Amino acid sequence: MMAAETKKIWMDGRLVDSANATVHVLNHTLHYGVGVFEGIRCYATTNGPAIFRLPEHVRRLVNSARLYRMPLPYSEGQIAQAIVETQAANNIVPSYIRPILYRGEPALGVKNSKGRVSLAIAAIPAKKYLGDSSESGVRAKISPYRKPHSDAIPSFAKADGNYLNSYLAGLDAADDGYEEAILLDQHGYVAEGTGENIFLVRNGTVYTPGLESDILLGITRESVIQIAKDLGYPVVEKLLSVNELLTADEAFFSGTYAEVAPIREISHFKLGDGRPGPVTREIMDVFYRVIRGEEPKYAAWLHPVLPTARPAAARSPRRAA
Ligand SMILES: Cc1ncc(COP(=O)(O)O)c(C=O)c1O
Fold first, then answer.
1. Residue 5: its pLDDT value, please?
2. CB of 219 shorter than 6 A to ligand 1
């Protein structure tokens, strides 16, 4: 993230200039990776700026913190209000919003359960994660790096340290000329992308790995499952082998950053005719209408942001005892 891309960053109840949004270099999160965060989008909709699935993102953030024994300094309502306040203060649309819970005080030593937990929230201009190819189809490589088992690193939590694995897989795929990596779980079943969930389509049924494949339970994934079911497609969550993936009729990624992005090639195997398939296009079409506010049925997924919104509660955090 470039500091210059945003004006104000919310730090523990204050909106500070981006250049002053700093922490001590000996903080616990920097050294041991114990932080939890979210990636959220705010879209320009027909009814003005709106944040996509805000309560679900806040709930996941809170659950991630719980799994990492980080006592929460704020209620879910306060976090949601602070996110809205940050979005309104920067007025960047469309934006990518990044709340992060971290231990910012100087403290070396891994077993830190007492360190103060802080919340920072930034909103930066949203970009297309996978570039122009995210609509025409991306090329992905099956990664030699596998997902860690949840017995070691819980995939349910969106934690800083998880992204060591995504980083290695992503750079390896890029070095080989691919746009994205597909990681397998410890048993060799398909898990997910570096920052996306994965779906495949066979004979009109939509498949996606379940939690047993050590995936993050994506909020876009859940939205896509709902859209696919509403369109009348059977959706099956199950262990998926590489063979099932390589011979799928269609495949696509889902994620806050990637949105819904068709996959046209996997490790030199062309999927279908190498273009986004009909089921993928139908789901994408509904998804992109939803985020523009054009699908009244899913209006509850969009949380409107008024430019004047300045909720007072967010500036008086409830500190954990
Ligand atoms: C590893 C991983 N899987 C899946 C996802 C997709 O989750 P969501 O749709 O909630 O953004 C993300 C992004 O947050 C991710 O980092």
1. 83
2. yes
Sorted by where each begins, the domain ranges of the chain are 3-127, 133-296
User: Domain 3-127 is of which CATH architecture?
Assistant: 2-Layer Sandwich (3.30)
Ligand 1 proximity of 223 Cβ (cutoff 6 Å): no
Residue 24 has pLDDT above 90, yes or no: yes
DSSP assignment of 137-154 equals -EEEEE-SSPPPPTTTS-
Q: 40 and 255 in contact (C-beta within 8 Å)?
A: no
Q: Would you place residue 132 in the very low, low, confident or very high pLDDT band (cuts 50, 70, 90)?
A: low
Q: What is the pLDDT of residues 284-317, one digit of tens each?
A: 999 999 999 999 999 999 999 986 545 444 444 4
The tokens for 98 are 């990044």
- CA–centroid distance, 217 to ligand 1, in Å, is 7
Write the residue with the smallest CA distance to atom 1 of ligand 1.
195
Ligand 1 atom with the smallest distance to the CA of 255 is 9
Q: 54-90: per-residue pLDDT in tens? A: 999 999 999 999 999 999 989 999 999 999 999 999 9
> Under a CB-based contact definition with an 8 Å cutoff, are residues 97 and 9 in contact?
no
Compute how many other C-beta atoms are within 10 angstroms of the C-beta atom of residue 31.
Answer: 15
Ligand 1 contacts CB of residue 165 (under 6 A): no
Does the model's pTM come out above 0.90?
yes
**Where does the chain have alpha helices with state H?**
28-32, 54-67, 76-90, 133-136, 163-175, 219-230, 242-246, 278-291
Closest ligand 1 atom, residue 162 Cα? 1
**Do 219 and 53 form a contact (C-beta atoms < 8 A)?**
yes
Lookup: tokens for 301: 């997924």
| Residue located nearest, by CA, to atom 7 of ligand 1 | 218
Classify domain 133-296 at the CATH class level. alpha beta
The answer to whether the CB of 39 is under 6 A from ligand 1 is: yes
